[in-house]
Amino acid sequence: MTAKDLNPILSLRQIRKVYGSQEVLHGIDFDVGAGEVVALLGENGAGKSTLSRIISGAVQPTSGEMKWLGATYAPASPRAAMDVGVGMIHQELKLLPQLSIAENVFVGRYLMKGGRIDRHAMEERAHAGLQRLGLDVSPRRLVEGLSTAKQQLIEIAKAMTLNARLLILDEPTAALGGDETQLLFRQIERLKADGVGIIYISHRLDEIRQIADRIVVMRDGAKVQEFDSGDVPVRTIVEAMVGRSLERMFPAIPEPKDDVTLDVRNLSSPAKTFNNINFSVRRGEVFGIAGLVGAGRTELVRAITGADPIASGDVVLNGNVIKLRSPRDAIRRGIVLVPEDRKLQGLVLEHSIQENIGYANLEEVSRRGWVTSRRLSQFADAYIRKFGVKGRGGQNAGELSGGNQQKVVLAKWLARKPKVVVLDEPTRGIDVGARSSIYDTIMDLAREGVAVIVVSSDLEEVLGVSNRIMVMAQGKQAGILDRKDANDVSVMELATI
């Protein structure tokens, strides 16, 4: 069933968008039918976000026509779009940390009773939405301190309370594990049955076959291909996205050396998010860490890199026990973390690419304590070229695509030539082309003798890049698998112990 077989609830014709002298959308035609899931795919910078922001009222098109339920549609704001039944879940989390979960779910549209906010009704409806998504947490709890995965589920629950006729889901599973993803898919099926149209944006192409009725592929601001089914081989989709034949996704993995760079012994956290963890990483080894959301993976690597406290156990670097009281201690010893939330923890989005690279390398860009624009420019621009960042040095980091932002985070830390690099969800929300570049960077580090730790919720990714994989379950170490023994089944068996 496609929008062509129905009267589309949303219809776009010849939508164009121009910023200055640059046209970023080139005459897009796009339809969504009631009860239809349309996958909108493309590399970062293809125009997906701009198109979805136009549909949701956040951006105005330069030209073209939109119709909603057969009538002219030109929302002047997201609120105007929401009022007619169009809602959007953004990839970037937009929750307010100092408000409760229920307040976040209903922010801007609080339920009222007798002239007062009806908190009881808000909490009941928010809790029901969260339970449908498998999140058992009090709606009165503040959002502050919740994991990225839980915040993502709250965003989804928020959208589902809109009673929308059309939902735009931008990377809704980027922070979710397998169980949470399947719960979301079941909710999508229920929404479809109720006649809700869904635009589904994702870089996890294996999901598309499960969820999509139709696929629209964009490249460089244009719609380049449309498939009348979601059952399309991943390779076919990828080649449409990148405009070329895709020979391989994961590069060859080099063999590590025999000597151990990092040794983690009996490590436990004060909050018991992980307990009694033991593993070692050899020089030139890529060590994967897998597990379901909430298994304690992120908390573990934050402790190893000095960001979180350690209750007991040791971190040993090149045979010496080290005490890490802060990330600065780890950085000085040659251990760096590329965090899972690049926007919040990895970059200063309002500052330039050059400045972001310089912040982690002040000794290289300053002279007698003073940073000079010439030294900063020369140093940063060399790494911008090395990592293939598509952006000018003076451009704000917040203006870049997700893939290019991640390259900037990598550039600023790898410029320090670290001994250990920890990558937490290194390709979350990143397109296929940028992923391939990041995988190449990981292998380059391994060949140079750097010990690399990769934490990923993408099982294919952690299998594809790792020499060995440690699986965590409920804060415990479930097992370590050699590459030859690791596959989808063996990892999931350990992850669900």
TrEMBL record:
<feature type="domain" description="ABC transporter">
    <location>
        <begin position="259"/>
        <end position="497"/>
    </location>
</feature>
<dbReference type="Pfam" id="PF00005">
    <property type="entry name" value="ABC_tran"/>
</dbReference>
<keyword id="KW-0762">Sugar transport</keyword>
<keyword id="KW-0067">ATP-binding</keyword>
<keyword id="KW-0547">Nucleotide-binding</keyword>
<dbReference type="GO" id="GO:0005886">
    <property type="term" value="C:plasma membrane"/>
</dbReference>
<keyword id="KW-1278">Translocase</keyword>
<feature type="domain" description="ABC transporter">
    <location>
        <begin position="10"/>
        <end position="245"/>
    </location>
</feature>
<keyword id="KW-0677">Repeat</keyword>
<dbReference type="InterPro" id="IPR050107">
    <property type="entry name" value="ABC_carbohydrate_import_ATPase"/>
</dbReference>
<dbReference type="InterPro" id="IPR027417">
    <property type="entry name" value="P-loop_NTPase"/>
</dbReference>
<comment type="similarity">
    <text>Belongs to the ABC transporter superfamily.</text>
</comment>
<dbReference type="GO" id="GO:0016887">
    <property type="term" value="F:ATP hydrolysis activity"/>
</dbReference>
<keyword id="KW-1003">Cell membrane</keyword>
<protein>
    <submittedName>
        <fullName>Sugar ABC transporter</fullName>
    </submittedName>
</protein>
<keyword id="KW-0472">Membrane</keyword>
<dbReference type="InterPro" id="IPR017871">
    <property type="entry name" value="ABC_transporter-like_CS"/>
</dbReference>
<keyword id="KW-0813">Transport</keyword>
<dbReference type="InterPro" id="IPR003593">
    <property type="entry name" value="AAA+_ATPase"/>
</dbReference>
<dbReference type="GO" id="GO:0005524">
    <property type="term" value="F:ATP binding"/>
</dbReference>
<dbReference type="InterPro" id="IPR003439">
    <property type="entry name" value="ABC_transporter-like_ATP-bd"/>
</dbReference>
